[in-house]
Write a structure and sequence with these properties.
12 strands; alpha/beta; 17% helix; 4 helices
Length: 210
C-alpha cells in the first residue's frame, strides 16, 4: 500500500465518525481529506480556529484571498456560514462547542496522550490550536499511518515525542486498524480490509485488548 492509498483509506473511515448536525474541526494533513468522503445527505458545520464556521469545499478559483482555513488554504463559505475573529473561534473550542475534532498525530500512547506538533530538531511554525482542540473538543479522533516509514510504531506505550495534551484521544484510526481508548486502556475495535490481527500486534508498540 502506498502512502496515497493509506491516507485515503484513513480519511474514508474517519468520515463515518461524523453525524448530521455536528460542529467539526479538522486538522491539516489527512484530516483535511475527510470531507471528500462524507455522506452527502448529512449537514455538517466545519469550524476553523482562524474564525470560520460553515466552511465549504475548496474553490476552483481563489476569488477571496482573505477566506481561508487555519492552514491558509482557500475555502468557500456555505449558506448560513459565518466568520469572526480568532478569539471567538478559540472561545468556541474552549467552551466545548466542538462536537468532534479530527487531528493528525505523530504518536499516540496507550492511555491517550497525543504528540502531534513537533519532532525535536525540525523547524515547525508552532503548536497552533492543537492543545485547545485536544482538551476542549467533546470527542478527539486522531488519524495517522500505523507506522513510520522505517517501520517504527506510532501507537506506543508512552510517547517519546513532546506531548501536545495528556489523556485526550478517544479514538485512533490508522491504515491498519481502528482503536478506542477507554479508561486509559487501548481497545481494538476494527481491522481494516486486508489486515490481520497478527500484523496489527506486530506493528503496535503497546498491548491492547479486543
Amino acid at each position: 500500500m502506498d502512502m496515497g492509498d493509506a491516507r485515503q483509506i484513513i480519511a474514508q473511515r474517519a468520515a463515518r465518525e461524523i453525524s448530521d448536525g455536528m460542529i467539526v474541526n479538522l486538522g491539516i494533513g489527512i484530516p483535511s481529506l475527510v470531507p471528500d468522503y462524507l455522506d452527502p445527505s448529512i449537514s455538517v458545520f466545519f469550524q476553523a480556529e482562524n474564525g470560520i464556521l460553515g466552511m465549504g469545499p475548496t474553490p476552483k478559483e481563489n476569488t477571496d484571498g482573505n477566506l481561508s482555513n487555519a492552514a491558509g488554504y482557500p475555502v468557500t463559505l456555505l449558506t448560513g456560514g459565518s466568520y469572526f475573529d480568532s478569539a471567538v473561534a478559540f472561545g468556541m473550542i474552549r467552551r466545548g462547542c466542538i462536537d468532534v475534532s479530527i487531528l493528525g498525530a505523530l504518536q499516540v500512547s496507550a492511555s491517550g496522550d497525543l504528540a502531534n506538533w513537533i519532532v525535536p530538531g525540525k523547524r515547525v511554525p508552532g503548536v497552533g490550536g492543537a492543545m485547545e482542540l485536544a482538551y476542549g473538543a467533546k470527542n478527539l479522533i486522531t488519524l495517522m499511518t500505523h507506522t513510520e516509514k522505517d517501520g517504527q510504531p506510532k501507537i506506543v506505550e508512552q510517547c517519546t515525542l513532546p506531548i501536545t495534551t495528556y489523556h485526550c484521544v478517544k479514538k485512533i484510526i490508522t491504515d491498519l486498524a481502528v482503536f478506542s481508548i477507554i479508561g486509559g486502556k487501548l481497545r481494538l475495535d476494527e481491522l481494516m480490509p486486508g489486515t490481520t490481527l497478527e500484523e496489527v500486534r506486530a506493528k503496535t508498540g503497546t498491548t491492547f485488548y479486543q
